[in-house]
Amino acid sequence: MNRRLTWFFLAAGLAPAAAPTPGPANQSPAPSNRPPAVEQGATAPAAGPAPGPAPGRDPAQSNQSPAHSDQSKPDLGAMESAIAADPESLRTASEYRQAVIRAREYDRAIAFFEKLVADRPQSANAWLNFGYAYVDKIPAAGSISQVILANNALTRFSKSIELRKSWLALYTRGNSYLYWPKIFGRAPLGVADLEEAMALARSGPRKNVYARNYVALGDAYWKTERPAKARATWEEGAKLFPGEPQLKARLARAGNAEALEAYISDQLDPNKRVDTDLRPLWEGP
Amino acid sequence: MKRRRGSSAAAWACAVGLGCAFSSGAGGPAGAAGNGGAAANGRGFEDITRQAGLARPHHNRVFRNPYAAIMAGYTALGAAAAVGDYDGDGFEDIFVTDSAEGGKNHLYHNNGDLTFTDVAEEAGLAGGNDAENATAAALWFDYNNDGRPDLLVVRFGHTQLFENLGNGKFKDVTRQAGLDRYLNSIQAIAFDYDHDGYLDLLLANYFSPVNLFHPETSRFFPESFETANNGGGVTLYHNNGNGTFTDVTAKAGLTLSGWTLAVGHGDANNDGWDDLYVACDFGTDHFFVNNGNGTFTDKTATATGFDTKKGMNAEWGDYDNDGWLDIFVTNIYDDYMREGNFLWHNNGNLTFTDVARETGTYDAGWGWAGKFFDYDNDGWLDLYVVNGWVSAGPESYVPDIFAMIVRPGVDLADARSWPPMGNKSLSGYEKKKLFHNLGGQLFKDEAARHGLDSTRDGRGIAVADFDNDGRMDLFVTNANAEPFLYHNVLPAGAHWLELKLEGRKSNRDAVGAKALVDAGGRTLLRFVDGGNGFASQSTKRLHFGLAETAVVERLDVLWPSGLRQSFAQVAADHIYRLVEGGPRLEVLPAGLRAARHGRPAAGHPAGAPATLPIDPRGKQR
After folding, report:
1. Residue A249: how many other CB atoms lie within 10 Å
2. In whole angstroms, what is the distance from residue B101 CA to residue B104 CA?
3. Which among B335, B342, B349 has the least Cβ separation from residue A5?
4. Could you tell me if the ipTM is greater than 0.95?
5. pLDDT of residue A72
6. What residues have CB less than 8 Å from B582, skipping those under 6 apart?
7. Is the pTM of this model over 0.90?
8. I need a surface site. Which of B6, B255, B456, B543 has the fewest CB within 10 A?
9. Cβ–Cβ gap B307/A41 under 8 Å
10. Phi (first) and psi of residue B567, to 5 degrees
11. Nearest-by-CA chain B residue for A8
12. Would an 8 Å CB–CB cutoff place A42 in contact with chain B?
């Protein structure tokens, strides 16, 4: 099996932002459809083909609707004041970070949360959002900086868990471990976190967002060479959440280990922006 | 500039007797050579390294300084090759480097029967590796326009220039040429950037010019993995035309301080002046436009944008046959670093778009040389890419390097910060890639099918037609290992044409000259490059795969001097020689030396010579 892992300690939020990516053989390289150069690898030329979203590209650059454009200069200062007043509010912080992504003010957000946790060291959610702020910058960074950012994120998630074991924090850190290359042996830690998160999820009312737990836990089993358990987890999730596309995509490839490996590897590409928008937590069932 | 014509030219030419008489090359005595077992197995290439007499291994340099244990992992370089017909016998010879202290470089004379003889000692070229210098690469170029390829031996230390005396001997003229200077150069190209008719030299310098053999400081490693600016940059030497060179780097606007691993030239905007791509490790690559007045302008921001990758190769070629030269740059792709290569598609307006992902050329592992060539003569440039950093023991070096990266306040520029690699591996045992061009928009890896998927630590790829049969062969160098000579044994049905250009007003090597061939409704663009690609110089002979086209409807040659020459109805399956301004294409002998009996006499005219008026700006049609 040609396992493709990555060592980046990406902390996944609730959903990968990019759509499932076909392999090169399925991609259209038509000249008129060529994507712009990327923020991670290279900045876009001043002139060239019309920009469009593409695998590995930072959606912050090209995925903005006119409405988003109108919001590209939000009052970040006011949002920071609101977070400072209520550091446990996931919603306020999530909205702030999405605004930061659109404005590409990653360093500002990191600095803000650094100060916030210094002021409010017992706020578990402040630490969690601090970690997300690092994650948000990853696709805009070079490959080595990605390592450092992801490592920083991981330590912040651990601090949050230390303060309070929430489903979100466990899920996030567990998923983060899956981005490490196999050589670091972090996937088993991901299994532990994701199993604990799953136990918390099962102990309360069902939420659609828990479907992601089944996705990630299955991935964790897959990465620890337990394909049968991985498939069973995805199948269990699919029964509970039949509309979940990530589960469907994995099960559709379950009979082809190479295709499945390629798919999972692609999903965990650090050059892709991980959606850290937390709205699914309070929107929908 | 694209030109579309009808494809009935071949039939017409046969009817009037112009082309068919000469179209037997690949299928005749020349094409028959070596077309045996491997092809029958479906493999397009046959490893003939040992029987060819080329199986001498390269050895890495082992430094003897306080940082030797650390440097060992970062200097597994210097396995290089340069192809050139140094004795003018019509067969491409190979200069191959070693890097160990006392290690001998090799000048392999092509015996004309797919065997080679090392004549480096007799030629005076075997030295080059002593306690103060380590060979990194080599370059053939005719610096004095006497028709004999001279040799530049590129070194960590003092690069050397050897004049070809024409009797199988070479003379070290480094000092009198003004090139005796300590630089940690790793590659060089020769091109006539100012069109004065003499080849200039551009050196790619990796480390800054600190003496690596006796460093006075420990701070000579890259200060950053992504934005390092403490490397060696490049050095541009202007050829004064009198056997001497002058450093004009600053005057030309090429002052850089990146960790340059490769430089490549090509005419990006078809204005007749060759532009530059500078590929750098640990920081951004650069793209320079030639202003046509002896200076360059850094257009990186608008042409490609800045990057943080590990550029290791700068190869130019028109992979999609749209008349604009594109650029292929290798970077790193592995489990722990998903940078991926650049395939810069030329948009025709001095901007490029990276289409590596979309074309399937993104992942070639830890890439080194990547060369365009048309291995199956279908008219589309394919790509061969070698890779692999250090293939050693089962332990990985990745955790060690990671531990350093995340250490707060680590001083990366200090060699002492870096962990010794020991016997650990890093991106080792990687399989090479042969990206077959499926029509200009997509590539498919066919390396395993054709026996080109070695797992040695590849460095350079010299592409040449060593047996003059119209099918391009590969000489591949490997760090600390034997090289490979891959003989192309694909079935010889597809037509081809090769062109050896000789400048007169332009530089004698014709570097920078472009040729356009109309074949099968397509126009193919090729140009003479002066050593593009990491650790390897390919042939200067232009090669066109013509597929079904037996007669080329039109052939245009655009010289750096601005002269344009056009020929009509040129028969395929020949190697032609064209002297700048000369009236006709001369057929050179093809095939192996032993198979030449009964070949048409050399010098037989082909086509209808039609020298067109000079376009002083070299604008293309």
Report:
1. 17
2. 9
3. B335
4. no
5. 52
6. none
7. no
8. B6
9. yes
10. -135, 145
11. B336
12. yes
